Sequence to fold (155 residues):
Amino acid sequence: MLRSSLCRAPRGLRRPMATAAAAAQSPAKKEGDISDAFVSLSGVDRPPLPDRFRQRKCDLVRGREDEIKKSWSRLLKQLREENEIIAAKGPAVIPQVEFKDLDAGIEGLKSEIQKRGAIVVKGVIPEAEARAYKEEIEEYVKKNPSTRGQYHIVT
Fold:
């Protein structure tokens, strides 16, 4: 993480911070979409990369074609197996543990956590408190119909 002092503009280029009132009066920011993050989804034709990139790829592959084909075949086989596991288990493919059992329960799940890269910890917030958060969010959305996006709280 960068320290805030490293992110500041030089002294002569600093602008005063806008107040909340001024920010509220400024024109609305253009709404973004997925193409803002992934240029390939924008529909814009991009010029091809310089030939040195193609040449570098060729240099990396040359003489190792068989190894790369075998590696690709192993990957596809593993993906087929994992897809079957995911289809059979559904959301349960991600390991789960109750918060109260976290210390003891996580020990037996270590390999699955490493394999899946995630764990669901249930019971962290009492149900009544979680429901109150959900109601607060629903009330906010009702009062602010311009709010975009979807939310889903599992209690």
